[in-house]
Specification:
The complex is a heterodimer of chains A (113) and B (112).
Chain A: E1 5-7, E2 10-13, E3 19-24, E4 31-38, E5 42-50, E6 53-57, E7 64-68, E8 74-78, E9 87-94, E10 103-104, E11 108-112
Parallel strand pairs in A: 2-11
Antiparallel strand pairs in A: 1-3, 3-8, 4-5, 4-9, 5-6, 7-8, 9-10, 9-11
Chain B: E1 5-7, E2 10-14, E3 19-24, E4 31-37, E5 44-49, E6 55-58, E7 61-65, E8 71-76, E9 85-92, E10 100-102, E11 106-111
Parallel strand pairs in B: 2-11
Antiparallel strand pairs in B: 1-3, 3-8, 4-5, 4-9, 6-7, 7-8, 9-10, 9-11
Classes of the chains: A mainly beta (113), B mainly beta (112).
Chain lengths: 113, 112
């Protein structure tokens, strides 16, 4: 099975712009979660989508949003970018295990200038 | 807010040494997972422990879930340079939200 893929791998934006990141889960996985990873805050949960519905949400401002399509692919959008949004954004899919085991993609490295 | 504190934060050792990484919380988790992340990659699941007191072995890695399901440890025997990476524990909250709470991470460097 192919793993989780994320595009693009690297992105440079300036403050005030918006960005859209894409994630394709492992075939058959219906749950997709997004995380932000920074050296200072570690790995923080953004939100989880399951069958096109947001099932869980972390403590991030409304500038962070996402959606999931009928084929389980997901996108994450960040509007009005701030310098502090520079981070590695990780997508993970889960196949419905009772333990919510996550299979991560390689991430998108976002740099905001 | 549920927190998972890992210690130590950084660890640099020589090849062949043993080490233990700790993952502690004041909250009870329904299960706990350990991941390893290498530079430029996403975390990779190593193991899931479910029962209080459970011990699982993965080659030279030994994982233990605390009796009260609030803490966990990872012990590596005879570390090798290939063990280098960021080790993350993640607790499953269970219940209606069933979120994964990730620990603060332990960065391990094994020198040849």
């Amino acid at each position: 099975k192919a793993g989780v893929t994320q595009t693009p791998r690297y992105l440079i934006k300036t403050r005030g712009q918006q960005v859209t990141l894409s994630c394709s889960p492992i075939s058959g996985h219906r749950s997709v979660s997004w995380y932000q990873q920074t050296p200072g805050q570690g790995l923080q949960f953004l939100f989880e989508y399951f069958s096109e519905t947001q099932r869980n949400k972390g403590n991030f401002p409304g500038r962070f949003s996402g959606r999931q399509f009928s084929n389980s692919r997901s996108e994450m959008n960040v509007s009005t970018l701030e310098l502090g949004d520079s981070a590695l954004y990780l997508c993970a899919s889960s196949g419905g295990s009772s333990y919510n085991e996550q299979f991560f993609g390689p991430g998108t490295r976002l740099t905001v200038l | 807010t549920q927190l998972l504190e890992q210690s130590p934060q950084f660890l640099s050792i020589q090849e062949g040494e043993n080490l233990t990484v700790y993952c502690n919380s004041s909250s009870v988790f329904s299960s706990l997972q350990w991941y390893r992340q290498e530079p430029g990659e996403g975390p990779v699941l190593l193991v899931t422990v479910v029962t209080g007191g459970e011990v699982k072995k993965l080659k030279r890695l030994t994982f233990q879930f605390g009796d009260a399901r609030k803490d966990s440890s990872l012990h590596i025997t005879a570390a090798q340079p290939g063990d280098t990476g960021l080790y993350l524990c993640a607790g499953q909250t269970g219940g209606a939200t069933n979120k994964l709470i990730f620990g603060t991470g332990t960065l391990l460097a094994v020198q040849p």
